[in-house]
Amino acid sequence: MENILIDTDIVIEYLRAKDKSKTLLIELMKKHDVSLTPITEFELFLGAKTVSHKNDLEMLFNEVEVMPFSFGCGEVAANMLIYGKILGININIWKLESYLLLA
Asked: Which candidate in 15, 64, 94, 97 could, as Cys together with 34 as Cys, close a disulfide (CB 3.0–4.6 Å)?
């Protein structure tokens, strides 16, 4: 199977769905080996408001691969954003700054 990398919005749609079998995530998992980044993992756990949400995420993370984050990943991500803008591809950026607490 082909390995694909998914973003947070695909997982959120799955988590919110009443009928999870009809979500894009499930369709992708039927045809591909699904991976996500540690940034996506972070975003999802940050948004998990209840124990039930966290349990759902832990079950999901048992089924998908969380890719390792290593030196150079930030540069690759920045280049993707830059070239995406040049090519007219809309790449959503999550604004982490709104969640930071300043001492």
From this structure: 64
